[in-house]
Structures are given as C-alpha cells and as structure tokens.
Specification:
Shape: globular
Radius of gyration: 13 Å
Largest sheet: 7 strands, mixed
Number of helices: 0
Number of strands: 11
C-alpha cells in the first residue's frame, strides 16, 4: 500500500521561501511520476507541479512557473517542492499525489503566506 507523507509547511511572510518534502513508501518509487497539488480555503484542489519518473521532465501550473521547482531523489524515495518568492495566494494545504491503478494522496501540509 502506497503511503505519502508531506512535511515542510509553515507560516512565512510574502517573498520568503519554503521547501516541501513528500516521503513515499509502500511501492517502487522510481517507477512513479509524482505531483504536487494544493487546495486553498474555499477553493477546489488544483495542480501545482509534476515530475517524471527519471526527473528529467517537469511541468508547472502557470501561477507558480518560475517561482516553484519540483525535484525528486530516487535514492531516498522523496519528492520536493522548492517554493520561492511566495505570495499570499500561495496559501493552501499542499498535497503529494501519485497514481497507479488508483490515486493516492498524503494528508497535506499547510503553507500560510502573510502579506
């Protein structure tokens, strides 16, 4: 059973940086593409970034392009989201995502950006 555990969220001021980590267990991590989603208060969950199995290919939502970087470490079964120049509208619970025959979500980590 795949399990995802996010960490690294917190309260920061606008313009600051945070690095989120998703720890993967219960499967062959190097065989999965991974992604981050987020859900702001009162809004639907939305895609943030994804990364291919090898890490060679990444894709970003327009709202975070140029500020966020997704990466993975296949030796440590982790995926990271480096978030720079944070804005108030980045405030959300951030979720790690993976899919095989079903979708798996972590419990999320809260990022609050004060402006």
């Amino acid at each position: 059973q795949v399990q995802l555990v996010e960490s690294g969220g917190g309260l920061v001021q606008a313009g600051a940086s945070l690095r989120l980590t998703c720890a993967f267990s219960g499967g062959s991590f190097s065989g999965y593409a991974m992604a981050w989603f987020r859900q702001a208060p009162g809004k639907e969950r939305e895609f943030v970034a994804s990364i291919s199995v090898s890490g060679a290919n990444t894709f970003y939502a327009d709202s975070v392009k140029g500020r966020f970087t997704i990466s993975r470490d296949n030796t440590k079964n982790t995926v990271h989201l480096q978030m720079n120049r944070l804005k108030g509208e980045d405030t959300a619970v951030y979720y790690c995502y993976v899919r095989d025959w079903r979708i798996y979500w972590g419990d999320g980590t809260l990022v609050t950006v004060s402006s």
